[in-house]
């Protein structure tokens, strides 16, 4: 009888599967690391570019009186201004700047009178009578700014060229206001006056 040779078929080796799985894990890890590094580099580069192109913001001026800062923000650089409110804030800013140095009793009295007049200003911007009051207050404020400059210089009339130019511009802005016309038609003139007054007070506060 012929012999039939029986062979036990050995199971396939598991090692190729293990090696393949490890290779796949390493491949996924390598791709993840590569992409992650690129993202971090991109974020860092973008932040550096933004820092280079964004102008540095000036630090807040701790030496500036709070009243003057408020006046500048709400009346000198704002798109719309409340004339009644801004005249009151101008008086407060003037007072804060004047109090930084010893001033004469006359200036203190003038400042108090000016603020009293400002407190009584009507809110009706269409009134011609109210416009006349605003014109008077503009003139008073311009005169006070000149008085503070002269007092700061030590002798009346002995102001520096820079101070004199500031006072002159404030007075010119006040003179440009027409007390016979309603406020609503003179917004540009009003804005110019507040802007010149803020510039003059800033020069006095930092000078």
Shape: elongated
Classify the oligomer.
Answer: single chain
Helical content stands at 55-70%
Radius of gyration: 37 Å
Q: Helix-strand pattern, N to C? A: HHHHHHH
Mean pLDDT across every amino acid position: 76
Broad structural category: mainly alpha
Instruction: Characterize the main sheet.
Output: none
Strand fraction band? under 5%
Give unreliable regions as ranges. 55-60, 155-163
Please tally the helical runs, counting DSSP H or I stretches of 4 or more residues. 7
How many extended strands? 0
Cα distance spanning the termini:
126 Å
Give a description of the structure.
With 207 residues, the protein is an all-alpha fold. The chain is built from seven helices and no strands. Helix 3 runs antiparallel to helix 4. The chain is elongated. The model is unreliable at 55-60 and 155-163 (pLDDT under 50).
Question: What is the structure about, briefly put?
Answer:
By secondary structure, the chain is an all-alpha fold. It has helices spanning 15-53, 66-76, 83-98, 105-119, 128-153, 161-176, 187-206.
């Amino acid at each position: 009888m012929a012999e039939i040779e029986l062979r036990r078929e050995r199971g396939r080796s598991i090692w190729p599967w293990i090696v393949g799985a490890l290779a796949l894990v390493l491949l996924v890890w390598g791709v993840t690391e590569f992409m992650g590094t690129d993202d971090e580099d991109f974020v860092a580069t973008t932040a550096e570019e933004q820092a280079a192109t964004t102008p540095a913001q000036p630090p807040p001026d701790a030496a500036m009186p709070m009243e003057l800062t408020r006046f500048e923000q709400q009346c000198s650089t704002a798109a719309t201004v409340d004339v009644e409110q801004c005249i009151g804030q101008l008086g407060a800013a003037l007072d804060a700047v004047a109090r930084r140095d010893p001033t004469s009793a006359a200036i203190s009295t003038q400042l108090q009178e000016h603020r009293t007049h400002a407190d009584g200003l009507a809110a009706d911007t269409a009134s011609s009578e109210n416009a006349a009051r605003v014109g008077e207050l503009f003139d008073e404020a311009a005169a006070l700014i000149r008085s503070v400059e002269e007092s700061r210089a030590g002798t009346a009339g002995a102001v520096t060229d820079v101070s004199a130019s500031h006072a002159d511009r404030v007075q010119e802005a006040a003179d440009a206001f027409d007390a016979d016309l309603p406020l609503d038609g003179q917004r540009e003139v009003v804005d110019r006056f507040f802007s010149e007054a803020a510039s003059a007070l800033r020069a006095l506060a930092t000078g």
